[in-house]
Amino acid sequence: MSQIIAIANQKGGTGKSTTAVHLAYYLAIKKGYSTLLVDADSQTSSSQWINNLEKPIAFKVIHEKDELFKEMPKLAKQYDYLIVDGPAGRLDDETKAILAWANLVLVPIQPKVLDLSSTLKAVLLINQAQEIREGLPKGALFLNRAKQGTRLKDEATRFLRTVPGVISLKTIIHDREVIADVPGQNITVWTMTGRPAAEARREYTQLFNEILDLLKI
Ligand SMILES: Nc1ncnc2c1ncn2[C@@H]1O[C@H](COP(=O)(O)OP(=O)(O)O)[C@@H](O)[C@H]1O
Ligand SMILES: [Mg+2]
């Protein structure tokens, strides 16, 4: 059965595109699933990155809300997984079209005060969709770009646990230079050598397995 996983957060720069590309790579290349990345962000950063990878992964750019609404279920029938890189900014209608079809919404959050309040905006849209769709999509929040041993990271972890109607994931993706560097080299952390890349791979693998487990429930 095909699954639609959306990466959403109206706040820009939280790591949606980075997470979307790594998740699409993990599912397509490491796990061998037929996977399509849908780039719904007008900056098209994830589709350009995917397009430049050594190993081909299918992608489609769709920005317009009605087209997203119409195409997502059709595309889902053709793939095991659809990974939707959501838009940033005031694009609630596009986000709502995505939430109308997604099985799971993954929300990357940076442990910063402003980012935590914008989290609640994303969660509100998820909760509204859940009311209409009898509990779907599942919402899963995780900390991205967390700094080891900081008070903010601990405070943010506690805060995420208090957000209603969504799951706070155990895995934390830390702020890692290697993750910031890979798009410029048209690769993912899976094709990078060295210990920092191995640590980033370990975190991403744990995060993705955590969400794949949620989809089985
Ligand atoms: N875990 C991380 N560690 C270091 N840099 C990161 C991490 N996640 C994302 N970044 C960097 O943060 C910036 C914003 O990430 P991006 O994925 O483009 O966010 P969004 O798509 O939500 O706007 C990019 O420069 C990206 O390389
Ligand atoms: Mg982006």
Automatic annotation (TrEMBL):
Q: Using the record's annotation, list all stretches that form the CobQ/CobB/MinD/ParA nucleotide binding domain.
A: 5-186
* UniProt xrefs under Gene3D superfamilies: P-loop containing nucleotide triphosphate hydrolases
The record's InterPro entries line, in alphabetical order, gives: CobQ/CobB/MinD/ParA_Nub-bd_dom (IPR002586), DNA_Partitioning_ATPase (IPR050678), P-loop_NTPase (IPR027417)
The name this protein goes by in its record: ParA family protein
Q: Which organism is this entry from?
A: Komarekiella delphini-convector SJRDD-AB1
